[in-house]
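Recall that a protein's primary structure is simply its ordered list of amino acids. Everything else, from secondary elements to tertiary packing, is in principle encoded there. The following example makes that idea concrete.
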Amino acid sequence: MLGAVLRASGYEPLLSEDGRDASDQLKAGLSVDAVLTDIRMPRMDGVAFVLHLRSQEATRHLPVLAMSAYNDDRQEREVRAAGANLFLPKPFTVQALTDALRALLASVSPSDGQPS
């Protein structure tokens, strides 16, 4: 569903089963502008995935939007401490998602690809 919403909003999403699948795709050379991740996933959850992204030179500065239905303050603090740039609690509207993604992409410095 998220893929369809993003496509309808003009983005070209690449989907993964979970954090490990996404990590494997990135390690194999897949290039993306940003990562949207759920927090609750099998094999490698979103917090572990974000920590992994931040530990790798190739993905250290990749902008990350984390989403979760478990939207208490502790959940947001945990994923932000792991390195996520933004947190979007579920349920969210299409407008909230596209606004968050637009803000995330706008925060990336065009000169060095790093979030500002």
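The chain has a mean pLDDT of 89. The chain has one domain: 2-106.
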